[in-house]
């Protein structure tokens, strides 16, 4: 069964410094990967998606992610963190005809 | 274009009661899926409906059921509520049941007392 691992349950960065949130997937097929963000008491908002067109995917709010098949990774990055980026981030895999498989989430804290 | 609408936003129910949650997907979307989110278990898949048919089902007891109407709106029902059913229930809407992204509603916060 497919699974998604997010290596850090909590990441803390200072405002203006880079963000790296790590994600590894286990699919043996070509995955369909997404990053979602959830602010407190809110639903999930799509940040970006990988659908095999390009390995480097740009999303909203300055986030981007790189798909590396050799490492089965899809890490999320942002060059400069903003206070408003503080939230929970979920890496998600979806196989055709299947439901979304969520990683456990990484809580991002941004310090002033 | 209106987003995914879930009603109600908040619910407080007593153990043993039943509850119905509603989800209106984005116009034109035919796939609706439901998720339960709790601090301990994270996001867990409940079920997915596509064109009024249940496509997939997660590992939840039969007390959890759902349906989808011809206009793609979906309802989720939980009978004989237990304290452990307290959670944020999220609905997601997709164009199709495939590799496309899903758009989530803001959720219904259910508290069972």
Short characterization:
The complex is a heterodimer of chains A (112) and B (113). With 112 residues, chain A is mostly beta strands.
Please describe what this structure looks like.
The complex is a heterodimer of chains A (112) and B (113). Chain A is mainly β and 112 residues long. Helix content of chain A is 0%, strand content 50%. Chain A is built from no helices and twelve strands. Chain A has strands spanning 4-5, 10-14, 19-21, 24-25, 33-38, 44-50, 56-58, 64-68, 73-78, 87-94, 100-102, 106-111. In chain A, strands 2, 5, 6, 10, 11 and 12 form a six-stranded mixed β-sheet that branches. Chain A starts with a strand and ends with a strand. The model of chain A has no long low-confidence stretch (mean pLDDT 91). Chain B has 113 residues and is mostly beta strands. Chain B is 0% helix and 53% strand. Chain B has no helices and eleven strands. Chain B has strands at residues 5-7, 10-13, 19-24, 31-38, 42-50, 53-57, 64-68, 74-78, 87-94, 103-104, 108-112. In chain B, strands 2, 4, 5, 6, 9, 10 and 11 form a seven-stranded mixed β-sheet that branches. Chain B is globular. The A-B interface holds A 32, 34, 36, 41-46, 49, 51, 90, 94-102, 104-105 and B 4, 6, 33, 35, 42-43, 45, 48, 55-56, 58, 90, 92, 97-99, 101-107, 109.
């Amino acid at each position: 069964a497919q699974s998604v691992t997010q290596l850090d349950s909590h990441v803390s960065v200072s405002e203006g410094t880079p963000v790296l949130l790590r994600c590894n997937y286990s699919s043996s097929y070509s995955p369909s990967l997404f990053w979602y963000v959830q602010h407190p008491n809110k639903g999930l908002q799509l940040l970006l998606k990988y659908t095999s067109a390009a390995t480097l995917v740009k999303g909203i709010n300055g986030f981007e992610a790189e798909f590396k098949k050799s490492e089965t990774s899809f890490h999320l990055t942002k060059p400069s963190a903003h206070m408003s980026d503080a939230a929970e981030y979920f890496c998600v895999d979806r196989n055709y005809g299947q439901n979304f498989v969520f990683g456990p989430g990484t809580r991002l804290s941004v310090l002033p | 274009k209106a987003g995914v609408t879930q009603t109600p936003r908040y619910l407080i129910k007593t153990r043993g009661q039943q509850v119905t949650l509603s989800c209106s997907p984005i116009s034109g979307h035919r796939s609706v899926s439901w998720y339960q989110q709790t601090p301990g278990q994270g996001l867990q898949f409940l079920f997915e409906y596509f064109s009024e048919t249940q496509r997939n089902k997660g590992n939840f007891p039969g007390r959890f059921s759902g349906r989808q109407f011809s206009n793609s709106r979906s309802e989720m029902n939980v009978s004989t509520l237990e304290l452990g059913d307290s959670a944020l229930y999220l609905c997601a809407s997709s164009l199709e049941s495939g590799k496309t992204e899903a758009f989530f509603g803001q959720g219904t916060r259910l508290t069972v007392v």
